[in-house]
Amino acid sequence: MLSSYLKIAVAVLLRRKFMTFVNLFGAALTLTTLVVAVAVLDGFVSPSGAQHRQAHILVVRSVLFTRSAGGYIRIANPGLPFYERYIQALETPDRTSYASDFKPATAYIDGRKLTPAIRRTDAAYWDILDFTVLDGRTISTDDVEQGRFVAVVNEATARAFFSGKPAVGERITLDSETYEVIGIVANEPETSRLAYADVWVPFTAGLSTAARETWFGDGLAMLYVDDPAKRGVVQEEYQRLLERFEYTPNPNLIDTAASAAESAFDMVANDVIGRTPTAPQSWTESRAGSFVAAAVAVALLFMALPAINMANLNLARILERAPEIGLRKAAGAGKPVLVGQFVFESIVLAAAGGVVAFVAAPLLLGILNATLFSYGALRIDASVLLAGLGLIIVFGALSGAYPAFRMSALEPAAALRGGRHA
Questions:
Q1: pLDDT mean over 235-259
Q2: Which of 175, 294, 322, 362 is most buried by its number of CB atoms within 10 A?
């Protein structure tokens, strides 16, 4: 039956080539945009490279510090004292790590100003993430404990500073601080939010006493579990520990801390949906459900207009087939059979648009990789492919459902007369 439907669908689409082209263009443009959007989201949620073990990692990026009596609110990244008391003290993670977020540094090479992204890390950072080491080694526990001025650089930075010459053992100067290069790793894309940087140094190198003692830092913490099923247990322990929060420098100033250990999807959802500074509960609950609902709503709205246009064009095309419909109904074809055929034809058209989308999307992703994201690695992988196939089916069904039900409801006599008053 499907082969017969496919032959009929192809014949019908070739009958009115211009109308088919208009439909195909709208479907291809809509699906290309959606596939690119899904690929970008996938790049943040399921990054490849060093962050490929993302399912094992939770992240604490920010904390809401408040006084329960009111009058004080501060939002900050966790500083070292907070990390040591409320993250490193956790028993359920298998490993924890403290690192800074990346930020630009300044360097000058042969009169050229460079602004490589620098990140400060501990040694556990290199155990949790799985970097490809091209030469030398990564930052060790001893490097951190001694506060050594050593650096790991990525391949692009090694090339920019040393023009292809061996970099390990050489020195680089960033923000007036000089570091010895001890290792080179593969470039990590900017969409890998935990792994991305150009240069990594021990967080203790040049660390001032004030920076060592501040609770309001620029750091982030990673909590790693060997079994991803344990992530919920880790999150629960973290919340229980925060219930006993004490700001030791001045308990009268701050007595409450709200924060969450986030998955990669939670990180994206919380960034998009946002949190309410005056509502601590919004800092402990995942926004993933709200984000999914909003994403589905936006996708459906985005597909609605082209789907409506396609529905009108499909209805006009189907009206021309009213005598055929009348004959089929007179011969005993039921409503479900006719609806299924017309929706299938619409899905075939959407699938043709999907083929165009899967050809065009990699080209657009290549442009984004080259222009928008440093070391971009956006791609069409299995999850994006499955999402795209789902979008094709939904788009085809949306654009074909109304014309199918409209024409399947025709009485045989009316259909044989042309069906203009259906």
A1: 94
A2: 322
